[in-house]
Design a protein that fits this description.
Helices cover 69% and strands 0% of the residues. The chain has 259 residues and is an all-alpha fold. The protein is globular and about 60 Å long.
């Protein structure tokens, strides 16, 4: 596990993240359970009330997540990219009697579902998550270790992308009009794909030679523990869902879309 953890040198403590915050130091399995619970509840109904209440309660819980506003903005911009076009498309192209309300519901729903995931990824070390999934969730160790290796390679691929960009600029490639820029972007993407395949093959061979692929029961360097605080976090997630769904039912907007 320590060899994999050194692949990109990343950790939970980073710029704008307080690893001592209650939710940040919670067991990753508890945070994952909360994120999945909120997601499963909100996909059942597309309405403004449940999504809005859930998002409001999530924002109130952010001070206990250890994620500073600037760090949240740096990691959560993808939610804006996903929510705004979805909301606009629903409002313009939807066949609802209240298109603006439907668009707002979709946008809030994307934010409410995505925000716990952003917090989970930002405040959780991949190695801690792998330990929890293997030891507590009892997932197969080969699957967990392969997923961990993939997560650790994300940072490496980002560095490779930056290196490719600087190398092509140094050779004078990528200038010109929009067509040339798109062609340059496609070339870098193809080169990154080749590098990822090569690096993945080398990593798979290395892991296999070090016994990561064995079917025998394995031991773990660090024990994953679930405590009372983790139980309280899960109960807090369930309470958030109950309040959001209850508010939607009270307002008469709760409408299950999955038969």
């Amino acid at each position: 596990m320590s060899a994999l953890g050194a692949l990109d040198g990343s950790g939970r403590a980073g710029n704008g993240i307080d690893p001592t915050a209650p939710l940040a130091r919670a067991n990753p399995l508890a945070k994952l359970a909360v994120s999945l619970t909120i997601s499963m509840a909100l996909v059942l109904s597309v309405d403004v009330v449940s999504a809005g209440v859930a998002l409001g309660l999530e924002l109130l819980a952010l001070p206990w997540c250890g994620l500073a506003p600037r760090a949240l903005a740096r990691r959560g911009w993808i939610l804006v990219v996903a929510a705004v076009p979805a909301a606009v498309a629903t409002a313009v192209l939807g066949d609802s009697d209240a298109p603006v309300t439907s668009g707002l519901a979709i946008g809030l729903r994307v934010f409410a579902i995505g925000l716990p995931g952003v917090v989970l990824l930002a405040t959780t070390d991949p190695t801690d998550l792998a330990d929890a999934l293997a030891q507590k969730a009892r997932l197969p160790s080969r699957f967990v270790l392969a997923a961990l290796a993939s997560m650790r390679l994300f940072g490496v691929l980002a560095e490779e992308w930056a290196a490719l960009t600087m190398a092509r600029r140094a050779r004078g490639v990528g200038g010109g009009g929009p067509i040339e820029r798109v062609r340059d972007w496609g070339g870098r993407l193809f080169a990154l794909l080749v590098l990822a395949i090569r690096r993945g093959a080398v990593l798979a061979t290395t892991m296999e030679s070090r016994g990561f692929g064995t079917s025998r029961p394995r031991t773990w360097a660090r024990e994953s523990r679930l405590g009372v605080g983790d139980l309280l976090i899960v109960l807090g997630g369930l309470a958030l869902v109950a309040v959001a769904v209850g508010a939607a039912m009270a307002a008469g907007t709760w409408d299950i879309v999955i038969a």
